[in-house]
Amino acid sequence: MNAVRTWSLAICFAVLAVAVLQYLAPPGSMEKMIRYVIGAFLVCAMAFSLKSVLPKIPLAFSIPTQYGTESEFSSFVESQEITAAQESVERLAETEINKMGISCKNIHADMDKQEDGSIGINRIEITLASGYEGYGARVESYLSETLGVPVEVMAGENG
Fold first, then answer.
1. Closest to 127 in 3D by CA, of 99, 97, 101
2. Neighbours of 20 (CB within 10 A)
3. Could you give the CA distance from residue 133 to residue 130 in angstroms, rounded to a whole number?
4. Which residues of 121-130 are buried (b: 16+ CB within 10 A; e: fewer)?
5. Residue 128's closest CA among 96, 154, 89, 90?
6. How far apart are CA 15 and CA 21, in angstroms?
7. N or C: more exposed end of the chain, with fewer CB within 10 A?
8. CB-neighbour burial class of residue 151 (10 A; exposed 0-12, middle 13-18, buried 19+)
9. Is the dihedral of CA 129, 133, 138, 144 positive or negative?
10. Are strands 151-154 and 119-128 parallel, antiparallel or unpaired?
11. 159: which residues sit within 8 A by CB, 6+ positions away?
12. Per-residue pLDDT in tens (0 to 9) along the chain, 159 residues
């Protein structure tokens, strides 16, 4: 509260000094220049009197962060990376199955983050559409060879 009182007192004295200066200034061609100098003086007076108050403003307004800690943010980013890689691998497997002329009902890639920061594919689980139950071994061997990861194929609605 004392800082506000000091600031307002400084502004009042500056305005009083400006009023006296304007009263003593001669009218005529120099009037515009004097108004410019007075305006600059008032701005400087306000800024100078605020220099003690400004450092305290950030303390009054704290901005909350969305995530509590850095580790929460890191785990969020890690899960997003795994999800994006998982979707990409699932689309790749679906494309390869469609090239074979076989339809699938569900594809799930089981993935996790390795110690070195890379994302590892543990296995890909595929559920074939009904009517393609007999193609399980063919799909499994083709995708295991093509993608280089273990593939588990389950039959349609019964499997």
1. 97
2. 10
3. 6
4. beebbbbbbe
5. 154
6. 10
7. N
8. buried
9. positive
10. parallel
11. 127, 128, 133
12. 676 777 778 788 888 888 888 888 777 877 888 888 888 888 887 777 667 666 666 655 665 555 556 777 778 888 888 888 889 989 999 999 889 888 888 899 988 888 887 888 888 999 988 888 888 888 899 889 888 889 999 876 544
Backbone angles phi, psi at 48, to 5 degrees: -65, -40
∠141-143-149 over CA atoms, to 5°?
100
Q: Which pair of structure tokens corresponds to residue 136? A: 């399980």
**pTM for the full predicted model:** 0.52
The answer to whether the beta carbons of residues 155 and 128 sit under 8 Å apart is yes
Residue 159: the pLDDT is 43
